[in-house]
Amino acid sequence: xxxxxxxxAHGAGLGSASAWMTRWAGYLAQLGVVVPFDYPYMRSGKKxxxxxxxxxxxxxxxxxxxxxxHRDHPVVLIGKSMGSRIGCHLTNEPGLGDPVRAVVCLGxxxxxxxxxRRVRDEVLxxxxxxxxxxxxxxxxxxxxxxxxxxxxxxxxxxELFMVEGGDHxxxxxxxxxxxxxxxxEEADRAVVSAIGRFLAHHVR
Length: 204
Fold this sequence. Notes:
Radius of gyration: 16 Å
CATH class: Alpha Beta
Strand order of the largest sheet: 2-1-3-4-5-6
Number of strands: 6
Number of domains: 1
Strand content: 15-25%
Shape: globular
Structural class: alpha/beta
Order of helices and strands: EHEHHEHEHEHEHH
């Protein structure tokens, strides 16, 4: 079996050339062929994300191009925050999401900002492909008790890897790193190992 094709989508605030995305693309290259891409608003230098249909279409086009360029590789969608949510929507699209074998979410935004924090669970409940959630325990956009409740109702095979003390970007505070006696890179490497185990089990 060929190494998986990892189509990597960025979050709302930072594009594929950002330090965070570049670092993680480097990590993930140990596991497969990493293909990052940018949504239209990021390519145009805008700060406000495109509307959902535009994001979905751009993700679909990136997937089609990646599949055409890297034939015979099993496809995995991996995304940071917003990119992971759009990837889940794409996976559910008949025809468009057919090549996708699995999804990996780095900081899934289960709830939004603002006073009314609606739980965005519909797309997750509709999933059929295996999904791995990588979540920091301090991530305000994904309270773990809410995620556990949603996971219990999901049909898709789903797994959770928690980054103890991690925020929405899986970053640990200095005091937490010192208390645990680990570096940020060591915490990141543990995530990479978890993703590797997930891929080995579900992507064949």
